[in-house]
Write a structure and sequence with these properties.
Layout (H helix, E strand, L loop, with lengths): L1 H29 L1 E5 L2 E5 L17 E5 L18 E3 L21 E3 L7 E2 L16 E4 L6 E2 L5 H4 L7 E4 L19 E3 L11 E2 L12 E3 L7 E2 L12 E3 L11 H5 L9 E3 L11 E3 L14 E3 L5 E4 L13 E3 L22 E3 L9 H6 L14 H7 L3 H6 L5 E3 L6 E3 L6 E3 L3 E4 L5 E3 L4 E5 L3 E2 L6 E3 L7 E2 L12 E3 L6 H6 L14 E3 L21 E3 L20 E3 L10 H11 L5 E3 L4 E2 L6 H9 L11 E2 L11 H40 L1 H10 L1 H4 L1
Length: about 700
């Protein structure tokens, strides 16, 4: 009987060891494993596109990253000693079966970007059982709506050590009495920027059951109305962010800030709490009256269409204030400029101007009605009804036709602080010929502009553009002048091997492509521009100019100055020879450093032969500063270089002859010195000698 018991125990331990070893070996085959002090870290990010098939993990695993693996359900048990679990970016839709049971050492759990609905079936009372040591929980970006989620606080009440909670907040979800047990909870992030949030109406008791919070982020939560003193219960509150709730307006600040003097507030952010477009706003003393008695160190009212700061606002700011931001507004001069001296502890002040216009579709068609001082608060039900059509605007992109005055010929929009991708629009401009958009920040030209057939002149220089699509100029077939200088289009041009960018610009007469960091030009870039008169490619990084230009019979000037040209290829020289026979074109090659060597003698001679085609050739320089070659005395320098090259050739021949002679002499001496040895060897080996 004893033998049987010992055999049973031995078999059990052997099978356990085999299963553990096999599980670890398979996991570490498909994932990255690192071990330290017998503690295993498993990095399995983005390893499985379909069919996650790992169900067994080594017992000594303490850190796991299983994000981005299309996991649909948790049908395995985690190692009991694990402290970090990341299951974000998967397809998990259910938390049934107590998947985190007995994980008493777990500190961090990330379930972000899954499909877990906010319902009592998922957040049942025991879903987080045994997670008494968990300090960070992230369940953001899962579900836009909730299903019977009124009593989920029981599930969260088990997380007694939780410090940071990041979650979605659908409309009918609130913080119930179970959250009172979370005495360690100090940071709450329900921001709609990184998840889903729809509070709409912020009641005075909304955070009553979370009295220990220090940081709250309710930005972009579609809050349009706030009851008096919603944060008065949070005596430990240090940081509050209500930004991007566009319908609040400054008129909601008195209610929101009421009672903040009873908290420990240090940072308050109210950026972008107005609609995108509208008349300028004014910040008055009534808006910030409850901030005076706080201990705030940082306040931000950025991007609120603010044009004026009312008299007395700055003197009524907290005395402890060190950082103040009115950035991205429309501030004009006012008496407030003489009140800055009252902010005695201020260390940082931000009043940067609005450098970009609002988004093309969002600003015009935004369904936004901000609360103003002169309006009465709208009821909760009305606020919900007003949003019924909001979802349609998220998917509907209107087809817009811009009608210009029928006789308009020139449009100036230069230096207008335009900051956007060039929008796809249809324009009705029967007479528009000239458009100036230079000195803005139109950083991508991807979408087509329809109705620009009569456009003759366009200036898009200095727009920081880094991407240009072939569709952009597709309809601009009448262009005669195009200036796209001082951008960053090198990558777009390099990728245009089929030469589609300018295939429809057949009437171009002047083209400016300077200052674009160009390194290479496809040979067919300008193949359709037979009417070209002026071509500017200066201030780039070109090392060669292998392009087709022989067909440009009207070409009068080519600017290739300030590049990295050292010589021309035979193909390029032939292109210019064909052009020289038809035109009197001038070429500017200043501030390139040419190779003034024997290898480049033919190119230098060609330049001398056609020097009347080269602008200010006397100012050209060589790459070798110590070289005696002088373009001011081009013919003389060529003669001297030719002599040097001839002398060099002569010395090379003499050197080769001398080396050959020396080798021959040495060989003869060696043979003569060893003649008897050679004869003896031949005598002993008559066959070898024969």
């Amino acid at each position: 009987m004893a033998v049987f018991q010992w055999s049973f125990l031995l078999c059990f331990f052997i099978s356990h060891w085999i299963s553990t070893t096999a599980g670890e070996s398979y996991v570490c085959t498909v994932c990255k494993c690192t071990s330290s002090n017998n503690k295993l870290r498993i990095d399995c990010r983005d390893r499985f596109k379909v069919g996650f098939n790992i169900t067994l993990f080594p017992k000594n695993t303490v850190w796991m990253d299983l994000s981005g693996n299309n996991i649909e359900g948790i049908d395995w048990r985690f190692p009991k000693k694990v402290r970090h679990i990341d299951l974000s970016r998967n397809c998990i839709s259910s938390l049934h079966g107590k998947p985190f049971e007995r994980l008493i050492f777990l500190r961090y759990l990330n379930l972000e970007q899954n499909k877990i609905t906010f319902s009592e079936s998922n957040y049942y009372p025991d879903v987080f059982i045994h997670l008494e040591r968990l300090h960070t929980l992230n369940i953001k970006n899962n579900s836009k709506t909730s299903v019977s989620a009124h009593n989920i606080d029981t599930a969260f009440s088990k997380l007694v050590s939780l410090k940071t909670l990041k979650m979605d907040l659908p409309f009918n979800v609130s913080f119930g009495s179970g959250f009172k047990n979370l005495k360690s909870l100090s940071r709450l992030d329900v921001s709609g920027i990184t998840g889903q949030c729809n509070i709409v109406y912020l009641s005075g008791s909304f955070f009553q059951n979370t009295p220990f919070l220090k940081e709250i982020d309710v930005s972009d939560c579609q809050i349009s109305n706030a009851e008096k003193g919603p944060f008065i219960y949070l005596s430990h509150l240090e940081k509050l962010d209500i930004s991007h709730n566009k319908e609040l307006g400054f008129s909601s600040l008195p209610n929101i800030t009421w009672g903040l003097n009873q908290t420990s507030i240090r940072t308050f952010r109210a950026d972008d709490i107005h609609c995108l477009i509208g008349i300028g706003t004014q910040l008055t003393m009534s808006h910030i009256e409850h901030l005076r008695q706080t201990r705030l160190v940082e306040i931000s009212f950025a991007r609120n269409r603010m044009e004026l700061i009312g008299k007395g606002v700055l003197p009524h700011m907290p005395e402890t204030l060190e950082k103040l931001s009115f950035g991205l507004n429309r501030l004009t001069t006012g008496i407030y400029l003489f009140e800055f001296h009252t902010l005695r502890n201020l260390k940082e002040y931000n009043m940067t101007l609005l450098l970009k216009s609002q988004k093309y579709y969002a600003s015009i068609f935004e369904n936004c009605i901000e609360k103003r001082d002169s309006t009465i608060s709208i009821g909760l039900l009305n606020e919900i009804d007003k949003r019924d059509g909001q979802g349609m605007l998220n998917y509907w992109k209107p087809n817009i036709t811009w009608y210009f005055p029928p006789k308009l010929e020139t449009l100036f929009a230069n230096s207008s602080k335009l900051y956007m991708e060039f929008p796809a629009v249809i324009i009705n401009a029967t007479s528009l010929k000239n458009v100036y958009f230079q000195n803005n920040m139109l950083f991508e030209w991807n979408l087509p502009v329809f109705g620009a057939e009569k456009l003759e002149r366009i200036d898009l220089s200095n727009n920081f553009c880094s991407r240009m699509s072939p569709h952009f100029t597709k309809t601009a077939t009448g262009l005669k002048y195009m200036n796209i200088a001082r951008n960053m289009l090198a990558r777009s041009l390099k990728a245009d091997q089929r030469c589609q960018l300018f295939r429809n610009q057949r009437r171009i007469e002047e083209f400016d492509f300077s200052d674009n960091r160009l390194v290479h030009l496809p040979i067919c870039t300008f193949q359709n521009m037979a009417r070209m008169k002026i071509l500017r490619l200066n201030n780039n990084q070109l090392t060669g100019v292998n392009i087709r230009i022989r067909h440009m019979i009207n070409l009068s000037f080519v600017d290739l100055s300030n590049n990295r040209l050292t010589t021309f290829t035979d193909e390029t020289i032939e292109e210019f020879n064909q052009l020289f026979a038809k035109t009197k074109v001038l070429i500017n090659l200043k501030n390139n450093k040419f190779q003034c060597t024997c290898e480049n003698f033919d190119f230098l001679s060609w330049m001398n032969q056609h020097k009347h085609h080269f602008l200010q050739i006397e100012k050209y320089v060589c790459s070798d500063q110590n070289n005696r070659f002088d373009f001011r005395k081009l013919e003389q320098s060529l003669r001297e270089l030719k002599i040097q090259c001839m002398n060099l050739e002569m010395w090379i021949v003499i050197g080769c002859v001398m080396i050959t002679l020396v080798i021959c002499v040495i060989a003869v001496l060696i043979i003569k010195k060893n003649i008897w040895h050679i004869r003896y060897f031949l005598h002993k080996n008559p066959r070898g000698g024969s």
